[in-house]
Amino acid sequence: MSTDNGTPPNHEDGADPNGLRDSSDYINPIWIERLRAHLGAHDSAELMDMMGPLHSADTGDVLEALEAAERFELVKQLGERFDFSALTEVDESVRTELMELLPNADIARGVSGLDNDDAVFILEDMEHGDREEVLSALPTFERLSLKRSLDFPEESAGRRMQTDFIAIPPFWTVGQTIDYLRNEEDLPDEFYQIYVVDVSYNVLGIIPLDKFLRSYRQRRIQEIMNANVILVDANEDQEEAARDFERYDLVEVGVIDESRRLVGVLTVDDMVDVIHEEADEDIKRLGGVGDEDISDNMVDTVRSRTPWLVVNLVTAIVVSMIIGLFNATIEQMVALAVLMPIVASMGGNAGTQTMTVTVRALAMRQLDGRKLRRLITREMAVGLVNGLIFAVLIGVVTALRFGNIQLGIVIGLAMVINLIVAGTAGILIPVTLDKLKADPAIASSVFVTTVTDVVGFFVFLALAGLWFGLF
Amino acid sequence: MSTDNGTPPNHEDGADPNGLRDSSDYINPIWIERLRAHLGAHDSAELMDMMGPLHSADTGDVLEALEAAERFELVKQLGERFDFSALTEVDESVRTELMELLPNADIARGVSGLDNDDAVFILEDMEHGDREEVLSALPTFERLSLKRSLDFPEESAGRRMQTDFIAIPPFWTVGQTIDYLRNEEDLPDEFYQIYVVDVSYNVLGIIPLDKFLRSYRQRRIQEIMNANVILVDANEDQEEAARDFERYDLVEVGVIDESRRLVGVLTVDDMVDVIHEEADEDIKRLGGVGDEDISDNMVDTVRSRTPWLVVNLVTAIVVSMIIGLFNATIEQMVALAVLMPIVASMGGNAGTQTMTVTVRALAMRQLDGRKLRRLITREMAVGLVNGLIFAVLIGVVTALRFGNIQLGIVIGLAMVINLIVAGTAGILIPVTLDKLKADPAIASSVFVTTVTDVVGFFVFLALAGLWFGLF
């Protein structure tokens, strides 16, 4: 997400006790204290000595290690020497907060030096009015190019692409191209392949740099280019593009617009971030938290978590009403109240196991029809086998604990039924959500545990009521 | 994980109804049926027409879409034309099964054409005896190079590295280097940077290809090289190396051995796989499943899930014993049994939310001392605020449902306490596990929900007993 315009620390030399990172790879508190001292003393030469050599990823981590007021102070004191691409490396809440404090004129100056993709990343979350103000302060060419990227949908390839790339005609020779590359000043900072295009920028082929380097000067580009090219539509979701990168081991790919003109390129470093974000999103959604960061404040955190807890409260009340149906049964045999959470809890866990595997398989597009049928069969069988194992275990424990073999049989039966239900629900619920175009990671958890709770309590209490004639 | 030696399908043209993938990016059943027909007819020309043009990633997906017997049949019929690098793209269980069916001589022939890293990936899971047999059938140079990689620890950079790279002396000129690249036959398939080394292969600097391409022929290598190089120790964990790639947007990095000699290179495509695997591992561990794939059979699945369910059974029994303490209380007031799962369930969910955020922050090395203190404060505050919100909600619902305001107050109090406990446990448990060098993703879930269950049931029942004088 950033240009490689700083120096990463050299890890393999072992951690310097006064260096930027400690031996566990965390930002070193000693380093931060030294920075703080210079910040307090307004010693901008020393500040620059410390911050200047940093890679933007490290600058981002330093910003995150500071308090909010210090971050603004640091950016202010560094002035024009602050590397705005570091803003692409911090949590959204840190970026938003800092951007709100900074004057729009400073932001315009800061982003105008950046790669197109970094600038878009920083501008896309700004409020409309502020963003327009920043854009209008930029040089025309840059403004138009940024506006164009911002016109593509959020999280699309068009938003993540870099608009600088190398495009040459097919009739050039290798020698001509090398001379062009050596003499042209305005080239992208980094590139991994050369695009061969016709006059209307339709892509005819690509040449990876290693292959290009090994070709003789007199060869024609069209003879050495690879005409079988993967291209990505600018409107395509970034996640789909990332899947192509992962599957086909790509390093760079061309992005085309509706009229099939080459408008930019995606590079693997941005896709690595996307892959990481998407996995992170899945983990958080499965855990019942939204798009939150550890830097979010308390109010935002409460706001993002409450909806999920409300849903859980409603389902918990439903479960409690199911138990309420067996009021009289429990009154006659309090042991049931003591035992009932065991069946529900085991079902919840078994269901979560199946659901986790299913959600991952869906996210990675592994579940075609045949595999789905296999998975359903397997999970029901696993539910049955685990059900039998744990039925015997809990049956024996219960019989011994309450001196009541029949109670052991009842809880064992309930266990088998609930674990089969757990396996089935754990797979059918995420698959159904996926078919309905909903994200299975978001809602599967709550549905699965509701099913296993309802079935767990109901089956156990109903079986016990019938067996012991308590109705 | 594989060389780019096949043609990926061109997505942006829209899905061909008879093509390899359908519109949702799954392997097309129609395509597979056609392949099956050729397989049945032993029509090797047609088979090759279908399989030949595929990228190894697609070949891998095709293998997974077939039944076990068909996979072996396909590999057998393709013979020497089967692309062994596809084996790096399939689930471990599919690979293991296929490898056991294939004669070691075929495996030796298959891996001998592969990149070093792909060959290691395929060989590392083989049984010792079989592996030695395969290795001894390989040409000396290849055998030694593979053995060397296999000597590095599992999941280390040394295991993932590619041992082909371009190393040149610092006193060469750009022109000399270009001529060498053009004339030398035995070069890596793909490379993104050139390594500058001294006589003992110590790295003096690197030159990215784009920078190299733009330099004039007469320039000396040592003038244009970047002497500030990131290198990775061959014994370093692949996950740490992947973190460097992600943080510093790397595409390729040199790997050095104990004596600091350059022994190989890591490329970003392999690191993308590592990043994905690690995230996947975290998700599965949080969901209580081990290293399992959807291709695993039923017995393996039961085996991998049972330990977790046993742990859960034990904790569920402990929780049930806590409830058992309040036998007499529940007997006097059955409404308590009906309500008690609500407090526990809300605590479990709130605790899981906090734990998820903490586990992710730990995995991404985001939690230094200051952030940890901030997070603890925030989570306890979130617990208090959410506790108050849900105390009022459940208090009102309970008071109305049972016509008992005092019962509403008791459950509300229990809710506040349990949600604060949930926030605290959700953060302290994973952090403690991390400090003890245990993986917080594995065991946090069970500890957190045990704490919230125990506290939830105990506090609610004890408060009710005290309030209503039921002891």
Automatic annotation (TrEMBL), chains A, B:
Domain CBS: 225-281
Keywords: CBS domain, Cell membrane, Magnesium, Membrane, Metal-binding, Transmembrane, Transmembrane helix, Transport
Transmembrane spans: 308-328, 334-359, 380-399, 405-429, 441-468
A Pfam family: MgtE
Stretches for region Disordered: 1-21
Membrane topology according to the record: Multi-pass membrane protein
Recorded superkingdom: Bacteria
Places the protein is found: Cell membrane; Membrane
Protein family membership: Belongs to the SLC41A transporter family.
Role, per record: Acts as a magnesium transporter.
Assembly and binders: Homodimer.
Name of the protein: Magnesium transporter MgtE
